[in-house]
Design brief:
Distance between the termini: 28 Å
Number of domains: 1
CATH superfamily: Spore Coat Polysaccharide Biosynthesis Protein SpsA, Chain A
Order of helices and strands: EEEHEHEHEHEEEEHHEH
Oligomer: single chain
Radius of gyration: 18 Å
Number of helices: 7
Strand content: 15-25%
Mean pLDDT: 92
CATH class: Alpha Beta
Low-confidence stretches: none
CATH architecture: Alpha-Beta Complex
Structural class: alpha/beta
CATH topology: Spore Coat Polysaccharide Biosynthesis Protein SpsA, Chain A
Shape: globular
Largest sheet: 7 strands, mixed
Length: 240
């Protein structure tokens, strides 16, 4: 297995979103999972990896103080672990990642960037091993899972046939982290120009990047709705 150099990866965690689908008045990342804020679980998992030398969270200005207070109250950073850094993110995910990339300029130790959702607290070491081992082959590798359910497309009211079934063959759901060579991701963002994209791999694909799909665990779920927290709690309890 190929191993990335120690501290050669910078982890970027976009955390400036409001989480409107979660239905809470405050940022969903402040919701409690196993007695701690949701986002802290994601940060701790990345801090424990020797490959990761920096962790940058892109947060909104209104949430910055609460993030800092929560980190200080619930999580002691161990010796040798990277201490979270903060940048102000933007309204769109891409704005937040770009702000974090700017913070990396001039750091010659960083060769790779791992972009990870703050709302994915259950990523496993096994999956991190796999995606870190794969990325040197193509400079871009992401965790993902094959679509297992039947897919339907809503064609809209008034259509003679309002729905159709979509062939799920070769379709995958993208997870995070998504890992890229720093220069490749910087190139992708330099040519972004505000064109909508739902993840960083899409931007890399637009500049001709060869993105590998690495099969990851379905337990690496993204907390989007309140019921997702209950599922995450059950998974954590089983692991303990």
């Amino acid at each position: 297995m190929i191993h990335l150099k120690e501290a050669s990866v910078a982890a970027i965690i976009p955390a400036a979103g409001s989480g409107r689908r979660f239905g809470a008045e405050q940022n969903k990342l402040f919701a409690t999972l196993a007695g701690e804020p949701l986002w802290v679980h994601s940060v701790r998992k990345l801090q424990q990896r020797p490959e990761i030398g920096r962790i940058i969270l892109a947060v909104s200005e209104q949430d910055l103080t609460q993030f800092q207070q929560q980190l200080a109250s619930v999580h002691d950073v161990s010796e040798g672990e990277p201490r979270p850094e903060w940048v102000l993110g933007g309204e769109e995910r891409a704005d937040s990642v770009q702000a974090a990339l700017q913070a990396l300029q001039g750091d010659s130790n960083v060769e790779w960037v791992a972009v990870h959702d703050a709302a994915r607290p259950l990523v496993t070491d096994q999956d991190l091993d796999k995606v870190f081992a794969a990325v040197p082959e193509t400079d871009a590798a992401i965790l993902a899972g094959p679509v297992s359910g039947t897919l339907k497309r809503d064609l809209g009211v008034g259509q003679q046939q309002p729905t159709e079934t979509v062939d799920r063959k070769n379709l995958w759901i993208a997870f995070t982290p998504q890992v890229f060579r720093l220069g490749l991701l910087e190139q992708a963002y330099a040519k972004h120009n505000g064109c909508p994209a739902t993840d960083d791999a899409q931007l890399v694909e637009r500049v001709g990047g060869n993105v590998q799909l690495i099969s990851g665990s379905a337990e690496n779920l993204k907390i989007t709705f309140p019921e997702d927290l209950s599922l995450a709690e059950a998974i954590l309890s089983r692991k303990k």
